[in-house]
Amino acid sequence: MVTTASPSRRARRGSGAVTLHDVARLAGVAPITASRAVNTPERVSEDVLKRVNEAIASTGYVPNRLAGSLASTRSRLVAAVVPTLSGPIFLATVQALTDALAAQGYQLMLGQTGYAGSREDDLLDAIIGRRPDGIVLTGVMHSAESRRRLEASGIPVVETWDLTDQPVDMLVGFSHVEVGRQVAAFFHARGRRAWALVSGDDERARRRRTAFEASAQALGVGPVLAKVVPSPTTLGMGRAALVELLASGQAVDAVFCSSDLLALGVMTEARARGIDVPGQLAVLGFGDIDFAADLHPALSTVRIHPDLVGQRAAAFIVARAEGRTVSEKIVDIGFTIVERAST
Amino acid sequence: MVTTASPSRRARRGSGAVTLHDVARLAGVAPITASRAVNTPERVSEDVLKRVNEAIASTGYVPNRLAGSLASTRSRLVAAVVPTLSGPIFLATVQALTDALAAQGYQLMLGQTGYAGSREDDLLDAIIGRRPDGIVLTGVMHSAESRRRLEASGIPVVETWDLTDQPVDMLVGFSHVEVGRQVAAFFHARGRRAWALVSGDDERARRRRTAFEASAQALGVGPVLAKVVPSPTTLGMGRAALVELLASGQAVDAVFCSSDLLALGVMTEARARGIDVPGQLAVLGFGDIDFAADLHPALSTVRIHPDLVGQRAAAFIVARAEGRTVSEKIVDIGFTIVERAST
DNA sequence: GTGAAAGCGCTAACAA
DNA sequence: TTGTTAGCGCTTTCAC
């Protein structure tokens, strides 16, 4: 913007936008009174409230929350860090988080690390620099350096999607180990004895996989045929994985996939090859993607509650931001195996 | 009257965190010099740079960008407003936007309006209050009030996913009318003459639909059997829609769906009923979801480039934030009809 | 209920 | 290349 309006000495700084001072002057009150009329209207006389509101309406004043945050050391901003938005799972969490926060007057700032996690440290610094009132992390924190910075910042942190005994601060998750175990028990109870696994290579998927394999052994089921694919997983990888599994020549009558998309891929390839699901092959997914029930055959899967993760995380952070203490800092939201037609 | 502030007994404000002053004192320089060492290291002597960096390392200083933004009137924050994150389409845009911005040192703030759009005004105020360096909107802006506030704010705006002659500011989109026309031409060229439509009720889908229907008439194809479903659309709605279309008794040999998920639903239901795709029924989607090519049969669809939308939008905003003027404010990224097995 | 003063932590402007 | 000064726009603290 080209300003010629510099009548006296120093050039004008600032954005030129309407400020609380302008509103106050117009309403004939002190700035602090205008501030109170905006933020705590109940502590101001009716007359003042009316005049301030009129001034706001006539000027189109929008409070500068940057300044407010700086002065009050409360930003009403919450940061969320996810490996990736693709994959419908974290998505649902982010969506629920955004909504729950917006309802309380908070905004969400989003950061993606990629599954590699190398960008995590930088990203974290960028985030901490904005002094959010809370940080929601996907997964549990591992880099010691990041952990240190996070703790030093004093910002409330919620780790999600996993369990650990030593959370940085608060935690909303469930046990991937338990998922692996229960899926194994599930296959076993249904008489399946030739298991395979198609799994992403992220840490949580790996944890489910290890538990699943250990359970297989404990239950006397032969070695699990495993195909590991890079996260985020796709339908195409599921198709390709089944091709590989079949090519191995080993018998397979049940596949546990680390995502519903992989499972859909396996089912798609099975159909293309005339393999009957669930007759010849049971397929179990993970995530209970919204369309899992509408597939043909309907997909059996592990249901977690991604939206619940978001809501609980939001509640944790808002509580802290408002000075309440959170008594139970770890929430296990559990999961359910939903049996449908594919098993 | 200028009184030198003597730090006597007033209670301490602030967050207690390490500030630039602390770093400067430790390094034995003035605060502004420390600031330069951090932000424009090339304009500071090697010696100073070294001392400041040491001070930063030893204190764990993280700059307060709230304060920096306030002073410089540049927040390096960009807001994105989407109807919903579900549906893989906006998602890809948001993802690309986040990445492109992060690469330039900007962060993304996310807002969801829901398709109803009633929350848009409030959301916009919350966003403007944070003084982002740019706002990326999904769709073109319609509420006159919002438009006014947006213009008054002086913040660069990019509308996306649609075209209009009167953008608020900048625009990255494509013509939904043209999509409707070309899909009609596509079906016609392949000898299909009994068309149906399964479409979400959001504005952009409606625009494609209207153009598609008009083209049908112009091409002498009978009235298009239409089933409108609420956005965001799901696989289940696609299945149900095909059931309804078939129940009407009217012949159908081609369906244009307003999303790939709807198309997958239609294909799923067709398979469940033994209807051959594409033999008896051609199915065309919209969006080219990542797994469209891996379906069986592979899904023909309209490919747009959601990530390109994000990248272009990011480029627009960064350009503006850095004071460059954007010569061509409207970008039509076009689309392609990708023919695969389903047609 | 209202106001004056003093910062929050940083950077733009000006000066040396 | 470095420093001094004066804010950015708001809210805290303290006083009336």
Explain what this protein looks like in three dimensions.
The structure is a homodimer of 343-residue chains. Chain A has helices at residues 20-27, 31-39, 46-59, 65-72, 88-102, 120-129, 144-153, 176-189, 203-218, 235-247, 260-272, 306-321, and strands at residues 77-82, 107-112, 134-138, 157-160, 170-173, 195-200, 225-229, 254-257, 282-286, 300-303, 330-332, 336-338. In chain A, 50% of the residues are buried. The termini of chain A are far apart. With 343 residues, chain A is an alpha/beta fold. The first copy, chain A, folds into 3 domains: 7-63, 434 Repressor (Amino-terminal Domain), CATH 1.10.260; 75-174 and 306-335, 3-Layer(aba) Sandwich (Rossmann fold); 176-303, Response regulator (Rossmann fold), CATH 3.40.50. A 6-stranded parallel β-sheet of chain A has the order 2-1-3-4-5-11, with helices on both faces. In chain A, strands 7-6-8-9-10-12 form a 6-stranded mixed β-sheet, with helices on both faces. In chain A, strand 3, helix 7 (144-153) and strand 4 form a beta-alpha-beta unit. In chain A, helix 10 (235-247) crosses helix 11. Chain A has 12 helices and 12 strands. The interface between A and B is large, with 67 and 66 residues. The structure holds a DNA duplex (16 and 16 nucleotides).
